[in-house]
Each structure stands twice: as C-alpha cells, then as structure tokens.
C-alpha cells in the first residue's frame, strides 16, 4: 500500500493545491512506498499567509511557553522513537541502528536544547563612561524559511526549525523531497504539542518549485539552508538582492590528518566511522585521509582490512554497518566518482563497486566501502565532494605538507587531527582553513558551539547563540541619562 503524505499548513494536513505528488522510494529495495505532495509557489504562498497571521502572537508568547511547546514536541517524538527511527531508515537507507541511536535522539535533543535557549536568551547592555546606557534587544524576524537536505533528515530539519521557533518566528520548512517522511510525522504532532496553527508550516516538493518559491517570497525574511554548494550559490543570487538574512551550510571535502604519533586506542574505529558512517553521506565525514609517511603503510593495511570487514546490508539488520545509498541518482553519481578516480590513476584498495544483495534488497542501491590511494592532491577525486562511502589515502612528509594538502580544496567545513603532540595539534588547528577542527576525536558535538564552514562550505554559523542571533534582528537603544 502506498502511503500518502501531506503538507502541514495552518495547523492542517493538506494536499498540494495542484493535487500532484512525487514518489517516495525506499533505497534499500528501490520500491515506491509513499508519495509526498509536489507543491509549488501557490502552496508556499498559503503557508506564508498562515505564518504571517500566526507570527505576531507567537512572537509575543512568553519564552517559557515557547520552550514548553518545543519540549512537548520532543516528548512526543521520544514516545514514538521507534516509529520515527524506522521511518528515517526506510526513507534514507541508513541502518536502523543509526537512526535509532543518532538521528532521532539528536532531533529530540535539538528541540530540547533550543527550548532551553529560548528561556536563556537575553538582551545585552553596554554602559558608556558617562553613564549613558545602550541596551540591545533582539526581536524575531517574523516569517522565516528553513530548507534541509536528505542525509540527516529529521536531525537537520529540527536543527533549523527549533532555533527559529524558539526565537519567536513563524516558520515555513521544506524538507528534502528525497526523504520527506519524518518531517511529515513531526507535522502530525504539532497540534498535540500545542503549537498554534500557522507557527510551523511544512511544505513538501521539489527544490526548484518549493525551495525556489520560498527563497523568492518577499515576506520570508531569512533563509536557513543546508545542502549542496551549487544550490547554496543559486539561493544566494536570489536572496542577496532582496537583503534577506542567509545562513548557508554547504558541502565539504574534509581532511583527516593522522600523524605517526597518533594515539592508537580506538583510532581505526573512529577513522572508519568518520569515513563510512551513513554510507559516507555526512557533511562532516573525513573523505581525504592524510597519513604521515612513516606510519602510512601500517595504517593503510589495517584500515583497509577493517574496511573490508564492514558489512553492507539490509538497513533493518542489526549487524549491517552500512545501508543503502539514498537514491538511484546519487548511487550512479558515486559510482561515477569511483570510475573517475580509476581514470585519474587511483589504486582501489577495497570496494570500488556496487554490492548486490538478495531478497527484499535485491534491487537496492548499495556500494562497498571504498578506499583509494595513489591520487594527487590536485586531482578531481581529491577536490570534489563525492558524498558516499569513498575515501582516499595520501602520505605527507611534514606539518607544512599536511596543512597545504588539507587546505588544497575549495571547501572548508571540518577537519580532524590525530597526534599525541598537542602543541603541534594546536598549531595545525590554527592553520586549517575550516570552521571546525577535531583533535583526537570526530563528530563530538556540543550544541552550544558554532557550527559551519568557510570557503565554499558556507556562510554563517549554526548552533547555540549563533542560531538564536541569526533568527533575530538586534535593535540598539541608547539612553542618555
Ligand atoms: P541539495 O542542495 O540538492 O538540496 C538541499 C535542499 O535544497 C533540498 O530540500 C532541496 O529540495 C532544496 N533545493 C534544491 N534546489 C533548490 C533551489 N533551487 N532553491 C531552493 N531550494 C532548493 O542537497 P542534498 O543533495 O539534499 O544534500 C547533500 C548536500 O548537502 C551535500 O553537498 C552535503 O555536503 C550538504 N550538507 C551540508 C551540511 C552542512 O552542515 N554543511 C550538512 C548536511 C549536508
């Protein structure tokens, strides 16, 4: 049976005005199992109208009440965590165990974190020498747009809507059309959570229809976008002349710098996770592994042996380490990148091919964890984002060599540095052209810290007060006493 999803506009579940739908496909089986509205500008206009109506009262709602509603939403998701985890896994192809342990708990944490932030966000005061006082109040922007990608569907959807709502805005949110299911489920809980109609509106459909209309709409004061650098650039060209606030979290080509003195305990485990978690489809994944030459061969041999032992399988199986690639188009793109790496002279040490499963997953889109060496820093395979279970290995001879190679990409999202020499680690962290550096760890996240990238990885930061500031407009009042 095909499940029909709806938009959530003005507190009601509804179809797109055109009545048209997009197929929703399970990547593990390639079967269509649901359909989501294929909305357009008219649906965005309805959502904006509802949001405009709801915005003043929500902005005036005491922050403690806004926090209560967000916490209630988190509670409702938590009560039904298995439904959400199963839906996320089915929609995206990620292992159910990952959706259950990472994606949905983090979505719940996002809502709770920004519920608390709502109650702690304060005005600032700047007294001057003569006793004059400046006070800076931050008001919500009104109606804002949040556009999220498919790789961490509910995790990134809530990472945007939670601060937007906590700060007192009315929101139009557009989940990826590739993975709409958990955003739909969240919409179905909003009324029970006590969110007034129109405060959160969820409009499904293609980026070129819904996303574009949202970015274009004059009443939408800010766009918070996570996705590809290509789409981020096109959003910027539309939003910038309209003077909208923009937060762009874009692609990455992150380096993992491993020195010969790297602490060995848990090293290979964490580097494997950073390479292949979610089939390598996490913007923070370390896809270029740089290893000090004296440790290169030992690291390579152990890493490749462990990568070969990873199990690619049905996302529902508890022992699957990797599930399916999110869509046929992306599967073909990743296989194309592997072919390019071979053409560029890459030596495929393991993987490098599709994995054919049997039974219900016989038609699914699976790719073996792939490790490639012998590629120069400047080749396309080492510069362009692949966003799949594919990593390259390169040797370096000195700190300067490692830094130059790590920075030899247009992207600048994250990096990790592995060494017991912390002085060296700090010096290297200072020179890496990224928004995030992990030392002897990967993807440890404190939601208070600024999150985002430099260069072509984006503009602006999410997380903590950065997000609350993004979703508010400051006004300074200077009082001469
Ligand atoms: P994408 O850019 O194709 O789509 C992202 C979202 O934008 C989707 O909801 C899509 O429908 C919408 N969209 C597409 N075209 C649009 C347009 N013209 N106007 C407005 N909206 C439009 O990205 P994706 O393939 O869904 O996600 C993968 C990408 O996201 C990768 O490049 C990855 O690195 C990046 N990503 C970045 C971060 C980060 O925090 N920096 C996190 C996760 C993913």
From TrEMBL:
Identify which residues the record assigns to the active site.
Answer: 249
* Molecular-function GO term, any one: aldehyde dehydrogenase [NAD(P)+] activity
Gene3D superfamilies of this UniProt entry?
A: Aldehyde Dehydrogenase, Chain A, domain 1, Aldehyde Dehydrogenase, Chain A, domain 2
Q: Which PANTHER family match?
A: 2-AMINOMUCONIC SEMIALDEHYDE DEHYDROGENASE
- Keywords, A to Z? NAD, Oxidoreductase
- Domain of life of the source: Bacteria
Every copy of the Aldehyde dehydrogenase domain together lies at: 17-477
Give the matching InterPro entries. Ald_DH/histidinol_DH (IPR016161), Ald_DH_C (IPR016163), Ald_DH_CS_CYS (IPR016160), Ald_DH_CS_GLU (IPR029510), Ald_DH_N (IPR016162), Aldehyde_DH_dom (IPR015590)
SUPFAM superfamilies per the UniProt record, alphabetical: ALDH-like
Q: What is this protein called?
A: Aldehyde dehydrogenase
Q: Say which family it is in.
A: Belongs to the aldehyde dehydrogenase family.
């Amino acid at each position: 049976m095909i499940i029909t999803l709806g938009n959530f506009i003005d507190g009601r579940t509804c179809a797109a005005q055109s009545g048209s739908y997009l197929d929703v496909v399970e990547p593990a089986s390639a079967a269509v199992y649901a359909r989501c509205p294929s909305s357009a500008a008219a649906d965005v206009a309805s959502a904006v109208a509802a949001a405009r109506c709801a915005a003043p009262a929500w902005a005036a709602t005491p922050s403690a009440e806004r926090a209560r509603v967000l916490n209630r939403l988190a509670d409702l998701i938590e009560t039904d965590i298995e439904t959400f985890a199963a839906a996320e896994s089915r929609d995206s192809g990620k292992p159910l165990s990952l959706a259950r342990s990472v994606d949905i708990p983090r979505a719940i944490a996002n809502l709770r974190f920004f519920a608390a932030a709502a109650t702690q966000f304060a005005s600032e005061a700047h007294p001057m020498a003569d006793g004059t006082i400046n006070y800076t109040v931050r008001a919500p922007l009104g109606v804002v747009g949040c556009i999220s990608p498919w790789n961490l569907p509910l995790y990134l959807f809530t990472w945007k809507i939670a601060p937007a709502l906590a700060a007192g805005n009315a929101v139009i949110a557009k989940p990826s059309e590739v993975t709409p299911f958990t955003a739909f489920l969240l919409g179905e809980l909003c009324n029970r959570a006590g969110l007034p109609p129109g405060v959160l509106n969820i409009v499904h459909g293609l980026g070129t229809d819904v996303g574009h209309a949202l970015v274009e709409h004059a009443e939408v004061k800010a766009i918070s976008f996570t996705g590809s650098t290509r789409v981020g650039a096109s959003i910027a060209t539309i939003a910038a002349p309209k003077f909208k606030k923009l937060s762009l979290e874009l692609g990455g080509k992150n380096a993992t710098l491993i020195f010969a003195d790297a602490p060995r305990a848990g090293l290979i485990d964490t580097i494997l996770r950073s390479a292949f978690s979610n089939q390598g489809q996490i913007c923070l994944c370390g896809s270029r592994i740089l290893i000090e030459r004296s440790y290169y061969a030992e690291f390579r041999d152990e890493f490749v042996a462990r990568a070969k032992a990873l199990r690619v399988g049905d996302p529902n199986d508890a022992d699957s380490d990797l599930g399916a690639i999110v869509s046929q188009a992306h599967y073909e793109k990743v296989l194309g990148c592997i072919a390019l790496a071979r053409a560029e002279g890459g030596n495929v040490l393991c993987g490098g091919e599709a994995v054919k499963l049997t039974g219900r997953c016989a038609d699914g889109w699976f790719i073996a964890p792939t490790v490639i060496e012998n590629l120069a820093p400047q080749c396309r395979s080492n510069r362009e984002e692949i966003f799949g279970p594919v990593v390259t290995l390169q040797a370096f001879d000195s700190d300067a060599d490692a830094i130059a190679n790590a920075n030899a990409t247009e992207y600048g999202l994250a990096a990790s540095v592995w060494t017991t020499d912390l002085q060296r680690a700090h010096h290297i962290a200072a020179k890496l052209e990224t928004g995030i550096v992990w030392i002897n760890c990967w993807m440890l996240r404190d939601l208070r810290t600024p999150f985002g990238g430099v260069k072509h990885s984006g503009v602006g930061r999410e997380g903590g007060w950065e997000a609350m500031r993004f979703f508010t407009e400051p006004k300074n009042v200077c009082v001469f006493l």
